[in-house]
Amino acid sequence: MSLKQYLQADTALSRMYQEIKAAGALRTVSLDLTHRCNIRCKGCYYFEEGMDRYATSEGDAALERFIQREKERGTNFITIVGGEPSLELERLRSLYQNFKLSVATNGLNRIPYDGLEDLPIGVAVWGDAKTDRYLRGNDKIDIFSKALDHYRGDNRAFFYYTVTPGNVSQIEGVVRRCTDNGNKVLFNYYSDLSSLGGAFDHRMGFEEVRLEIDRMIECFPGMIFMTPYFNKVISSGELFGMKWGYEVCTNLSTNLEQNAKRFENGMPYNKHFRAYYADFVTTRRCCTGTCRDCSSCYDTWEHFSWVMVNLRKHLASRETFAQWLTTMYLFYVINRLVDQDKGMKLLTSYILTHEWDVVRS
Question: Contacts by 307-310 with C-beta closer than 8 Å and gap 24+?
């Protein structure tokens, strides 16, 4: 069957596809809004690879030049990272006025509502109170509780829960605290870049984590920004016989000569993408690395792109097409590119009545 036939056969899929089409294609970049941060998380890729050495001394003028260049280049969506974006609110507002955005924050400071009313905010949490305090709070600061207070009932904010492989038993408790706070949850998967070992070692694999996240999708319907299919792709690092790594990564800076051979290997990639440092000019290899081994990358945003650009492989059956489309639609829902409340209801209904059995078979 063709894409057209799949859509004609399923009204829910047709509605998702039409909403995505109406929202428009994305031409994306990632940007470090600042090189500064107010905490030092164990395993943070930004500081592990010294990305904070790239900073601008020109402040707002450099940012304005960046905005103008990217608008002329056709960029319409920016993933804001850092450093810690809440330390540069005026920069954040400037970008918000010119592009669709998604921002990741550690939660220690609240990103205000005024002037940023429709901004998707991913608030980090890395485990229960004890684990999160150890990994992010230097065993002293309860950042998770502070973040819950800052974003209670804030419909812009979802918790971006980075799960460590040996702490599966914490997942439900963390999810419950977030959802009781009025916030949805998107999962990420911890990479042990600080070589802590033990429960934090990504080399243990994420099979138990995957199963527990699948259970969360069932137990907290409408509150988990995840599908069983996408969960399986990230946690296994496998997609249609491909193994995740540099040779298949789709979010690589296309203006860097070091990536040229990758772009010649026939694997699809995001042809517009660039990952900018906090000087607003220099680009690095990819979103989350300069020279790290890509096998340690379980980053959710990177894997979104991997699925999204591989439409052709997903056209083999109605089931695989549905898995591609629900992943694509989830990205648009999380980032408020479609109506989030209505979109989440549609997606949840579809996952719980269709995709679940396909993934488990």
Answer: 307/230, 307/233, 307/239, 308/250, 309/250, 309/268, 309/269, 309/270, 310/239, 310/240, 310/268
* pTM greater than 0.70 (yes/no): yes
358 Cβ partners below 8 Å, 6+ apart? 229, 319, 322, 323
The second-level CATH assignment, the architecture, of 25-311 is Alpha-Beta Barrel (3.20)
Burial 183-197 (b: 16+ CB within 10 A, else e): bbbbbbbbbbbeeee
Domain with CATH 3.20.20 in the chain: 25-311
Distance CA 176, CA 159 (A): 11
Write out pLDDT tens, residues 311-335: 999 999 999 999 999 999 999 999 9
Strands (E) in the chain, as ranges, are 28-32, 77-81, 100-105, 121-125, 157-163, 184-189, 238-239, 242-243, 275-276
pLDDT in tens, 20-29: 999 999 999 9
DSSP conformational letter for 171:
H
Q: CA 240, CA 310: separation in Å to the nearest integer?
A: 10
Enter the tokens of residue 19: 């909403």
d(CA 318, CA 292): 37
**352/77 Cα distance (integer angstroms):** 30
Residue given tokens 């969960």 in the structure block: 231
**CA distances (Å), 219 to each of 213, 334, 341, in order?**
10, 19, 18
